[in-house]
Design goal:
Blueprint (H helix, E strand, L loop, with lengths): L12 E6 L6 H6 L5 E3 L23 E7 L7 H4 L11 E9 L3 E2 L2 E2 H6 L8 E9 L4 H9 L2 H8 L8 E8 L15 H7 L6 E3 L7 E3 L19 E8 L12 E7 L6 E7 L2
């Protein structure tokens, strides 16, 4: 565990720049000019795939974040952390995060699961391939067959409306949160404190407590080397502030194993 700023590498975070006008939905996501979709109901699904369902409550999952890893508007540092499923020029890879926004006594099903008050699996994180020259019109017609599910999702109190992320802009390089490293120089920490809000990479905003609903204790068990704590923050999904589109009692982020890039872990951190 690092014990001072001298042993903590600075990491550059990337923040969303939302599109104003232009194409929306899958046409924006797969057109190669925009980087991602936040929220909405325009989920990219594999051929004949049913709508993803929550394994905790059975509700339809919300496509919270869909990132086109092949798009040039997606930061190279993020693209380097997601192994492509298609060779260059042969298609794209999408990184998708689905969450359950069904309203419960805990706020949402996803929030209750994140805080370990309910058991199950209230999210889906995956990479999916997209073939070159995919017929977007055909995809849109296939989505129309899920109209009842999509309409029900849009009526959820915690529904996140769709926004197109045109690109991600580099922010100020960050250091670890002071809940982890205690002896920062005040001026240094003020210059590199982890920022709140939705972002790629960087360091997450923490708190006194952490909750990991898959009960790994921050240890990746993949591979033959035994459990190892080699995780880095891939995406900060949201923090406990007024602009947080994802309602949670704490700050929510996705850890990715540095050794096994297909291992992702949800984390909720905060002081509550």
């Amino acid at each position: 565990m690092p014990d001072s700023e001298n042993t903590v590498p600075l990491i550059t975070p990337y923040f969303p720049e939302y599109a104003v006008g232009g194409e929306t939905g899958l046409r924006a996501l797969l057109g190669g000019t925009a980087s991602a979709l936040l929220g909405g109901t325009n989920a990219y699904l594999l051929p004949a795939e049913p709508w993803p369902r929550c394994k905790t409550c059975g509700n339809a999952l919300l496509p919270y974040l869909q990132i086109n890893v092949a798009a040039e508007t997606t930061p190279g540092a993020f693209r380097a952390r997601i192994p492509p499923l298609r060779e260059p020029g042969a298609g794209a890879t999408l990184f998708q995060v689905f969450v359950c926004v069904a309203e419960t006594d805990d706020g949402s099903c996803f929030e209750g699961w994140m805080l370990c008050t309910t058991e199950g699996d209230s999210w889906l994180v995956r990479t999916v391939p997209v073939d070159v020259g995919v017929d977007v019109g055909k995809l849109e017609r296939a989505l129309a067959a899920h109209g009842e599910v999509r309409d029900a999702l849009a009526q959820e109190a915690l529904f996140v409306p769709e926004r197109v992320i045109a690109r991600w802009n580099a922010g100020n390089p960050e250091t670890m949160h002071d809940e982890v490293v205690w002896d920062y120089d005040d001026a240094y920490y003020a210059a590199h404190e982890p920022a709140e809000g939705l972002k790629l990479l960087g360091y997450p905003t923490l708190g006194k407590y952490q909750s990991r609903p898959i009960y790994s204790d921050g240890q990746c068990a993949a591979g033959d080397d035994g459990p190892h704590p080699d995780f880095s923050c891939l995406i900060q999904l949201g923090t406990r502030d007024e602009d947080n589109p994802l309602y949670t009692v704490g700050n929510t982020f996705i850890d990715q194993c540095d050794k096994h890039r297909d291992v992702f872990e949800p984390v909720c951190a905060g002081t509550w």
